[in-house]
Amino acid sequence: MAYVTRPGASAPTPDLPGVDHDWVRVDDITVHVASSGAQGTPVVLLHGFPEHWGEWRQVIGPLSPQHRVICPDLRGAGWTDAARSGYRRRRLTRDVLRLLDALGLERVHLVAHDWSALVAFGLAMEHPERVETLVAMSMPHPYARVTPAMLASAPNTAYQLPLAIPGLGARLLSRGRQPLARYLFGHFSTPGTWTEKDLAIFLAPLTDRDRAATAGPLYRGFIQRELLRVFSGAYRSTPLHPPTLVLVGEHDPVVRADVLARQTGPAGHLEVREVAGAAHFIVDEQPGQVLAQITDFLAAHSGPSTGGISA
Q1: Cβ–Cβ under 8 Å, residues 132 and 140
Q2: pLDDT reported for residue 302
Q3: The AB hydrolase-1 domain covers which part of the protein (predicted)?
Q4: b/e map of 157-196 (b: 16 or more CB within 10 Å)?
């Protein structure tokens, strides 16, 4: 895989044939955006932790003939600025909204994995006019409730404790063999998912201590708080207007598709589907299945008005 270097960056970003790289100023940060496909309805792909835009490396190409595909690195991740603050619900949602504005995108198909799915749900509920469809992966939807099965899976979330401790999480993510990052990739995926070359794509940016240090504020300030809001019922009366598909891996150690499918709320169209043979990192584990689910759902729910604010 080739690499693209931005002046001042600690490591070059991976490059793929047909993918362009731009840096866009959004409020207090400069956002790295990988994109492909000049025409077609826009699809914005938001990555999870501890990945970056490269999570979508196996689906960008197949999507680009029919869509303008946009893969930003979110605040603190990849080659976007590692700001010391801003890892709260309102700011993270605003980051995506302001990026859409900067790119001239009035209405998009939104695809999100892991913690960015929580951002995507918030954007879809607060600004439904900007979201044509939503595909969320490996994360409970806003109407989820705590179940005995979920409580039984709690030991699988123990990694959040060292990750959230100031200083400790950054050291475990960035130093030596980067044990915490390697644990996350190994424990939450099916065997054989990763080669050392694959892992290097995601481990390299984390060797930057400042970047690794953003994981703590992200978990403390957003992920843990937002999941608490979900499970306490904060959104159970909030409509989710865009057609929404939730994808969950068959072997996900925390989230279960059959449980989420029974927990519904005031959504106009909410489907939950299981991805066979996958755990948490479903895009990396089963890219063909995920691609098929995305393309089928977008085709079934696309409207005539998607596109940019201006030509």
Answers
A1: no
A2: 79
A3: 42-286
A4: eebbebbbeeeebbbbbbeeebebbbebbeebbbeebbee
38-85 residue pLDDT tens: 777 899 999 999 999 999 999 999 999 999 999 999 999 999 999 999
Q: How do residues 148-176 score in pLDDT, each as one tens digit?
A: 988 889 899 999 999 888 889 999 999 99
**Per-residue pLDDT at 187 exceeds 70:** yes
How far CA 278 is from CA of 8, 65, 179, 291, in Å, comes to 37, 26, 22, 14
Write the pLDDT tens digit of every residue in 111-125: 999 999 999 999 999
The whole-number pLDDT of residue 307 equals 36
CATH 3.90.1580.10 fits 12-153+232-302, yes or no: no
0.90 exceeded by the pTM? yes
- pLDDT score recorded for residue 150: 85
Supply 88's token pair: 């709260």
